[in-house]
Amino acid sequence: MRISLPTYKKIVFAALVALVAIIITGGTVRLTSSGLGCPDWPNCEEGQLVADLEYHALVEFINRVITGLTSLAVILAVLGAIFLDISPVRKNRAEKGKVRKGKLTEEKIVGAIDTPKTNQMQISWRQKKELIWWSVGLVIGVLAQVIIGAVVVSSHLAPHTVMLHFLVSMVLVLNAVILHHRTLYFLSNPLDNLHQQPHLWQTAITHPQKVHLQKVMTQPAAT
């Protein structure tokens, strides 16, 4: 299964919205003094996962539900980055290696060199790897938030734990903004103009006269 870059952009945007939403709901929990509306973790109360129909308990429980949805969104962001479709240029490397070693017939050489026109919605492996790393940062941050959230509850809302909880949320939003920005950039600049600088061996096979002219022009003038 492969995912296109426009689809991945939507996944990343959903993760960004979820991370912003968790800050809003977390602030609501703080402002309404509902932090201990669910005194247990991960259950709302001992032996009870869902909160009762009570104001403070519901505010805290909704915050936890959105946290769960945010975790799902960032996991999808990582999986989406892993399954992103990459450029056919990378898929043809094995064939090009055979060309260098003289293991292909003339017909196959032409097929290996004349790479099909790259889909504008595909990216290079280097770009894909960058998106994977940024998305992994989201997962690490959310896992940290789950642990910190449990510490906040067990410490009865100790100020330093609450502040740490908030700071990690801001770092997560920054991470998601960068990931979304890089995804948009790669959509606008597919492959970073990868095809504009062909290798010399490609030119030697398709246009040998160009290679001869290049050698003549780069030779030092006789003195």
Give me some keywords for this one.
9 helices; mainly alpha; single chain; 0% strand
Can you characterise this structure?
The protein has 223 residues and is mostly helical. 69% of the residues lie in helices and 0% in strands. The chain contains 9 helices and no strands. The chain has helices at residues 5-31, 55-82, 88-91, 93-100, 106-113, 125-154, 159-188, 200-206, 208-218. The longest helix is centred in the middle third of the chain and has 30 residues, at 125-154. 25% of the residues are buried. The model is unreliable at 89-96, 104-118, 193-207 and 210-216 (pLDDT under 50).
Describe the structure concisely.
With 223 residues, this protein is an all-alpha fold. The protein contains 9 helices and no strands.
List the helices and strands and how they pair.
Layout: H1 5-31, H2 55-82, H3 88-91, H4 93-100, H5 106-113, H6 125-154, H7 159-188, H8 200-206, H9 208-218
Helix pairs in contact: 1-2, 1-7, 2-6, 4-5, 6-7, 8-9
